[in-house]
């Protein structure tokens, strides 16, 4: 069972903008807000399943964005109930290198440049409470 909450904030060309908290957002609402993002934005967008079974089902999907670079993180659990953070994979990034997103150091292969992948992940999570392994490893 799913009960999704969607929210976020971002800064676009020096102007701070908030994505108001919405329970059970429509696909249109999610896309409208994600379409506002551009490569000058920096911020965080979160979608959370309020009814996720802890240690079993994915809890939330977070998008960190900074200047056209995106880090997607799905808080999921493995078969034994341990936390498993799933991310997108950037095959073009140099392996073994690190990069900063929002002041935090992350493996370069987890940072993507395609907002369309982020949109697909958010729409899938909104509809199902999960994101397929083909989108997030």
Architecture overview:
The model has no long low-confidence stretch (mean pLDDT 96). The chain is built from two helices and nine strands. Helix 1 runs antiparallel to helix 2. The two termini are 23 Å apart. It is α+β, with helices and mostly antiparallel strands. A hairpin with a 2-residue loop joins strand 1 and strand 2 (15-23). It is globular and about 40 Å long. The strands form two sheets. Strands 1, 2, 3, 4, 5, 6 and 9 form a seven-stranded antiparallel sheet that branches. A two-stranded antiparallel ribbon has the order 7-8. The relative contact order is 0.19. It has helices at 27-35, 115-128; strands at residues 4-12, 15-23, 41-49, 60-66, 69-77, 83-87, 98-101, 104-107, 111-112.
Features of the shown structure:
137 residues; alpha+beta; 7-stranded antiparallel β-sheet; two-stranded antiparallel ribbon; 2 helices; 9 strands; 17% helix
Summarize the structure.
It is built from two helices and nine strands; from the N terminus they run ββαβββββββα. The chain has helices at 27-35, 115-128, and strands at 4-12, 15-23, 41-49, 60-66, 69-77, 83-87, 98-101, 104-107, 111-112.
Q: How many strands?
A: 9
> What is the chain-wise order of helices and strands?
EEHEEEEEEEH
Alpha-carbon distance between the termini? 23 Å
The average pLDDT score comes to 96
How much of the sequence lies in strands comes to 35-45%
Share of residues in helices = 10-25%
Name the structural class: alpha+beta
- Counting DSSP H or I runs of 4 or more residues, the number of helices is 2
**How would the global form be characterised?**
globular
Described by strand count, sense and barrel closure, the largest sheet is: 7 strands, antiparallel
How large is the radius of gyration?
15 Å
Low-pLDDT regions: none
């Amino acid at each position: 069972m799913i009960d999704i909450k969607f929210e976020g904030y971002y800064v676009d060309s020096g102007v701070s903008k908030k994505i108001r908290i919405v329970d059970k957002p429509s696909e249109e609402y999610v896309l409208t807000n994600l379409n506002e993002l551009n490569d000058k934005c920096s911020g965080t967008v979160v979608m959370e399943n309020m009814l996720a079974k802890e240690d079993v089902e994915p809890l939330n999907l977070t998008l960190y964005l900074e200047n056209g670079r995106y880090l997607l993180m799905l808080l999921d659990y493995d078969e034994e109930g341990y936390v498993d953070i799933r991310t997108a994979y950037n095959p073009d990034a140099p392996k073994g290198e690190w990069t900063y997103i929002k002041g935090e150091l992350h493996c370069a292969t987890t940072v993507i440049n395609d907002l369309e992948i982020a949109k697909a992940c958010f729409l899938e999570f909104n509809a199902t409470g999960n994101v397929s392994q083909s989108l997030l490893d």
